[in-house]
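Problem: given the chain below (290 residues), write out its structure.
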Amino acid sequence: MGAPLYGLVEAGGTKFVLGVARGPDDVIATTRIPTTTPDETIAAMVDWLAGHGPLQSVGLATFGPVGVDRASPQWGHILATPKPGWSHTDLVGPLAKRLGCPVGLDTDVTAAALAEYRWGAGQGQPAVLYFTIGTGVGGGAVIGGQPLAGISHPEMGHFHLPLHPADTGFGGVCPFHGTCLEGLASGPAIKARYGASLSELPADHPGHEVIAWYLGQAVTAAQAMFEPGRIILGGGVMGTPGLLERVQAEAEQLGNGYFRGKAREIVVAPGLGDRSGLLGALALAQAAAS
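Solution.
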């Protein structure tokens, strides 16, 4: 009998990435479907996975906020979200009903942190944080091999931080918190200020310094709270040439030599590249099947 086959879902605000795999080095098939209405998107997701079964289990790494407490009636449901039409959508129910197998669930960023801890840049580290900087900003943590959760999952993109001196006139784009990290450093926040993505701005544009400063603040806050061995920065904004190095330098300056982890060593790009989220879904699926 061969190794079990797992279904993988990386559910994002603009697209769902689907896959089936037997292990991190044995991803058999993948596809992408656009995130449109809940009914249309979920039906396409379930149909594709059903066509590649039978599956041992499914791992669902999703955008949030999402109910991750299995004891809650909201488990597996998207909670209040600014994404139109998606609040209170049940993601897990249709998967479990149609496929008849266990479903493992967490946020996309926590799942990515778990994948990087097991197979990527966080291997061998006692604590690993993963931030995605893209359409939104989110963060997840794995400590001692276990994903971090309290009464819900972490919301690391929604803490408030000081405004950069060159940014005091900007009110942020987060509909809930205005000038939280997401409201200041996400892709939409950058376009709202400058009319272009960060990678489209000239190399000497002040926006590069502003965004790196905010992300440096996030790094030093994470160091103060967790002293992680790795802080992994992913997402589309981080594809901007030179941004990772700018963030490392800002965090080194802000930390002022206090933390044991040196930002230039612990702040890194994803070791799994753009596979972190999908392989995070694999880690969730494996856990659900055990």
